[in-house]
Write a structure and sequence with these properties.
Oligomer: single chain
Number of helices: 15
Bound molecules: xanthosine-5'-monophosphate
Strand order of the largest sheet: 2-1-3-4-9-8-7-5-6
Helix content: 25-40%
Distance between the termini: 46 Å
Largest sheet: 9 strands, mixed
Structural class: alpha/beta
Shape: globular
């Protein structure tokens, strides 16, 4: 069993970052809402060696503010409170927290005292950290020393080496904080004495072991889409259950250029995995005929996918398990914005992969506890090519939401080629990895152009490229003009039926990333 850290969430926007930083340090951790019963349960059943209390939007000075449950202290493990977590610790132990007139947001300079276990190894005394708080600790509780002050004179850290309880007013998990990773590493590796076992090779080994335990000799089926999660899952399951894995790949006719062939080449030919390819373009296109409302299109595509998948799965004898590429951000027990914990945050996107429970299959979800960056790391470790593991996301409904209005085969064929030019040029110019998501959109409007001596009256292609961390907000990518010029010339020059290319300069909000 891996050593672990329990992260108690008080609703901070940075809680998942704390977990990712710990995992980067090689330490396994899980997040639970502060009021969730499962938190202490997890700590008791796993090899939990320390606890981190996250920040949060509330004020401990208010009545009924979220608090640290007594059972957490009963675990008798080292504790690190961050921001709200430090204030809640101070209040619990009888110190004073006040609503200050000085609030600190963004960069702040602090001076630390090296005379405590948490900071003793840091190479500098003065450095810049990331703050985001209104309340502050005015008097630390008994037994705690002031371990750092900000240049504004506010308490920036507290320490009690005897009980091994520490508090940071700043956010070490945010990369803007100098030595943030060192401080978190010091806490989990040296103070909690967690072994740094959480490496890609070990994650794979554990996932294989658990999957074998769960599925035994039974058959597993997987909807393979060619996206990162399902590809990594296929490679992992191949190692875990080998011949007992059957993948179903549905070519909806709404995929990128040559996607179907590439998926078959990679998984069936190269890796020898059992993949059933279903060419369902006709079914999707006829179901979409005459439909132009985006939500109707999504529903139709989702329904067709499920029907086809169920039909194919029904032909597979002895299928007992359905593998799904659920990842950790989809299942985290989060406190949300201080709502009291226990709430399950579920992916809000209607994914085409959302298959019905009535299929009578048990679920196997080997990526369930992994962050996307970990899924990518194990994909690389499993030998998948870099281009596949670091692919931009592609929406379940595919080109169905990138062809505005009614979907037609001609439009899809034209869009596939334009998109392929854009993406291959991004790769060739070393810009692909600098954007988070990029694609072409087909606009079913005609615009006048002049080509050679003739007048053209053809369709418009829009290019979209964004930079984002979480896809909830996004900036349009400032791609170089020369690059855009080159892509635009190639599209109109090589694809008959297009007369104009436009670049989308809308952020999210107000626009969404996809056009529909
Ligand atoms: P929006 O357009 O909502 O997109 O700003 C945010 C992210 O979600 C993807 N997206 C979808 N993914 N099914 C999916 O699986 C969908 O219906 C869907 N709609 C949008 C989008 O590509 C972007 O990465």
């Amino acid at each position: 069993m891996d050593d672990a850290v329990l992260i108690l969430d008080f609703g901070s926007q940075y809680t998942q970052l704390i977990a990712r930083r710990l995992r980067e340090a090689g330490v396994y951790c899980e997040i639970f809402g502060w009021a969730s019963d499962k938190a202490v349960d997890f700590a008791q059943k796993s090899a939990t060696k320390g606890i981190i209390l996250s920040g949060g939007p509330e004020s401990v000075t208010q009545k009924d503010a979220p608090h640290i449950p007594a059972a957490i202290f009963d675990l008798d493990k080292p504790i690190l409170g961050i921001c709200y977590g430090m204030q809640a610790l101070t209040q619990h132990f009888g110190g004073a927290v006040e609503k200050g007139t000085t609030r600190e947001f963004g960069h702040a300079n602090i001076v630390i005292d090296h005379g405590n276990e948490l900071f003793s190894q840091l190479p500098e005394e003065n450095f810049s950290v990331w703050m985001s708080h209104g309340d502050h600790v005015t008097t630390p509780a008994e037994g705690f020393s002031i371990a750092a002050k900000s240049h504004n004179g506010l308490v920036a850290a507290i320490a009690d080496d005897v009980r091994k309880i520490y508090g940071l007013q700043f956010h070490p998990e945010v990369t803007h904080s100098a030595f943030g990773q060192d401080i978190l590493g010091r806490f989990v590796l040296d103070i909690c004495q967690c072994a740094a076992t959480w490496t890609p090779a070990h994650i794979i080994e554990t996932a294989i072991e658990n999957t074998r335990l769960q599925v035994g000799n039974k058959r597993v089926i997987l909807g393979l889409s060619g996206g990162v999660d399902s590809s990594v899952l296929a490679a992992l399951l191949d190692k875990a259950v080998g011949g007992n894995l059957t993948c179903i790949f549905v070519d909806t006719g709404l995929l990128r250029l040559n996607e179907g062939d590439l998926v078959m080449e990679m998984f069936a030919e190269h890796m020898g995995i059992n993949v059933i390819r279903v060419n369902a373009e006709e079914k999707f296109l006829s179901a979409l005929k005459g439909v132009d409302d985006p939500e109707d299109k999504r529903k139709i595509i989702g329904r067709c996918f499920i029907e086809i998948f169920e039909e194919e799965a029904g032909k597979i004898e002895n299928a007992a398990f359905l593998a799904q590429g659920t990842i950790y951000p989809d299942v985290i027990e989060s406190a949300g914005a201080g709502t009291g914990g226990g709430a399950h945050v579920i992916k809000s996107h209607h994914n085409v992969g959302g298959l019905p429970a009535e299929m009578g299959l048990d679920l196997v979800e080997p990526l369930r506890l992994l962050f996307k960056d970990e899924v990518r790391k194990i994909g690389t470790e499993l030998g998948l090519p870099h281009d596949m593991v670091y692919r931009h996301p592609f929406p379940g409904p595919g080109l169905g939401v990138r062809i505005l209005g009614e979907v037609k085969k001609d439009y899809a064929d034209l869009l596939r080629r334009a998109d392929d030019i854009f993406i291959s040029e991004l790769r060739a110019h070393d810009l692909y990895d600098k954007t988070s998501q990029a694609f072409a959109v087909f606009l079913p409007v005609k615009s006048v152009g002049v080509m050679g001596d003739g007048r053209a009256y053809d369709y418009v292609i829009a290019l979209r490229a964004v930079e984002t961390i979480d896809f909830m907000t996004a900036k349009w990518a400032h791609l170089p003009y020369d690059f855009l010029d080159h892509v635009s010339r190639r599209i109109v020059g090589e694809i008959r039926g297009t007369s104009r290319v436009v670049y989308d300069i809308s952020g999210k909000p107000p626009a969404t990333i996809e056009w529909e």
